[in-house]
Amino acid sequence: MPAADFSHEQIKMLADLVGIPIDDAELPEVANRFASLMQELDRLRDLDLEGIEPVSIFPDTDE
């Protein structure tokens, strides 16, 4: 689902699920920023990542 297809109600529900309180007055701005973020993340699909090894960004705490 493209980010532009998310309704304000869905954005509010996602925020509630992760525990981020959003005031109704802030909802249009949050929805706009979410759409922008999703659009940028969609650009990653176009990258050729074949042969690139994953890198752990979290330190190994088991040692």
As an assembly, this protein is single chain
Cα-to-Cα separation, first versus last residue: 41 Å
Radius of gyration: 16 Å
> What's the main sheet like?
none
Order of helices and strands: HH
Number of strands: 0
- Given the C-alpha coordinates, what overall shape results? flat
Low-confidence stretches: none
β content, as a range?
A: under 5%
Question: Helicity level, as a percent range?
Answer: 40-55%
> Helices and strands: which structural class?
mainly alpha
How many alpha or pi helices?
2
How would you describe this protein?
The protein has helices at residues 8-18, 27-43. The protein has 63 residues and is mostly helical. The chain has a domain at 3-44.
Short summary:
The chain is mostly helical and 63 residues long.
Keywords:
2 helices; 63 residues; flat; mainly alpha
Topology diagram in text:
Elements: H1 8-18, H2 27-43
